[in-house]
Amino acid sequence: MAYLILKGLINRLGIFIIIALLLSKNRAFKNLILKQHVSIKDKLLLSAIFGAFGILGTYMGIPVYGAIANSRAVGVIIGGLLGGPFVGVLSGFIAGFHRWAIDIGGFTALACGLSTFTEGTIAGLLHKKLNHGKVSWKSALLIGIALELLQMVIILIVAKPFSAALNLVKVIWFPMTSVNSAGIALFISIIESIFGEQERVGAYQAQIALEIASETLPYLRQGLNEFSAYKAAKIIYEKVNYDAVAITDNKQILAHIGAGEDHHKSKINVLTKLTQKALETGECQIASNKEEIECRINECPLRSAVIVPLKEKDQVIGCLKLYKVRENSITDIDVRLAKGLAQLFSTQLELSKMEYQAKLLAKAELKALQFQINPHFLFNALNTIVSICRSNPEKARSLLIYLGEFLRKNLSSVKDMVPLEQELEHVRAYLAIEQARFGDRLKVVYEIEPDTNVMVPPLILQPLVENAVKHGLLPKKEGGVVLIKAKKVTGGIEITVADNGLGMDENGVENLLNKKECGEKIGLYNVNARLENLYGSESRLRINTKLMKGTEVKFFIPSTERTWREAYGNYRAAGR
């Protein structure tokens, strides 16, 4: 008898497994299983599905001694394990009540109904203990065996007369326990394949997220605005299978691409309560239906969405919204992708702000260094003019005109870069004043090649020339020559300021470029700092000097700032 029951239950179990396989391929069922936030409506639907499994198990049962050997427990136990207490209790009640109702007065009707409800309830309570339904088939097998044995105990306790219940249990305990627990394990292994597919999709989504982050970086580095938001939303929409993508700031929509874009337009204030909640709390929100989307247009196709905040440090500055046109279709994969993208975007926006602040700081430092040079030159020029005021008033007047013109050009310029020719005019004005002081002791040679009029930082040459005159030639009784040279090299211009003055100890060269050690020669330090700030350490001053032989200072200006590294590499490779 037990063998025939076992064989019959195995045959009937095959139908359950076929249904389980079909369900595992159904998108709606997969979404129900994978959803991170399951609504009451979802739970009712799951309860109905697994309750129906239980009823089917009853009708497919095998009559035995006035009772039914069946697979009713398979549906309700799986429902509880996957859906939690609510689904376990309700599906157990549906299947259990049906079993009692179709055989009222039967000697096992109450016992079987009660045991079905109990099995569903216990399975539901085990849901949270077993990683929210992500239970292995081995655990499911053991749970199935334990609960089926519990059913046998309930039959022995509740069913009357006891002798009939005992005879029944002796026949059905092994077939039902072995087949039903195996069926539960098989069903769970099929569900495991859904989670496995989810992990594979998740890995793919992570790769897509990195690609999206790479493509959106050039735009988000500009900060969060309508243009950058539109570009980022368009890239997401084209890369990932969503029906619409939107990005907001903390007040209004910045961009909306996809379904509903005819009325979800930029510059419209954020009206959705869930979006406002995401902005206020900084937490992810999920809209599961049209009502939660809160669109005032009845024909709007959007039915569900995941909304994640965008942050700069701890401050919420906007939201990323991913939409679908089906209700209750936001899965755990969607939530993880949205959170991952939001985290990447938030990092990019924060870096853009830091980069902007760094640029402002660098610009402020350049201005500070520039204005640090001006009084240094001014005091020296005025001292020179003062020294010849009485002896040659006309020449002093001419020098004052030179100085006035120099200062007018310098102080009126708000540009960060000036043509090399303008910088040479500054140098000529300075040297005109110094030659009045040195007379024939100071000679100047210009070797400026054609087509070398690149853009250079203002006041980049005059401090070098001043250093050559003051520290190289002034202490030398017979004076000397200052050479100012500009020549084209691969990718840019090489500029040289050289003198045949006293020179200096080679060991002390590095101190000239050290702020703490440069002493009065701060002009040289400032020029070097500005060059490094603009072009990097490779463009720093290169100083060659020998005692009583003179000093040569060179630096390289690339043709364009954007290609300076490549240009400098070519320049160095050429052996210059």
Briefly, what is this?
With 576 residues, the chain is α+β, with helices and mostly antiparallel strands. The protein has helices spanning 2-25, 27-34, 40-59, 72-83, 85-101, 109-129, 137-158, 162-220, 226-239, 273-281, 290-293, 332-388, 393-412, 420-438, 462-473, 509-512, 522-535, 564-573; strands at residues 62-64, 67-69, 244-249, 253-258, 285-287, 304-312, 315-324, 418-419, 442-448, 455-456, 480-489, 492-499, 542-546, 550-558. A five-stranded antiparallel sheet has the order 4-3-7-6-5, sandwiched between helices. The chain has a five-stranded mixed sheet with strand order 9-11-12-14-13.
Low-confidence stretches are: 561-568
List how many beta strands DSSP finds. Answer: 14
Number of helices: 18
- Could you tell me the strand content as a percent range? 5-15%
Q: For the largest beta sheet, what order do the strands appear in spatially?
A: 4-3-7-6-5
Shape: rod-shaped
What is the average per-residue confidence, as pLDDT, rounded to a whole number? 82
Helix content: 55-70%
How many whole angstroms does the radius of gyration measure?
A: 42 Å
Structural class, by secondary structure, is: alpha+beta
Task: Report the sheet with the most strands, covering strand number, pairing sense and barrel closure.
Answer: 5 strands, antiparallel
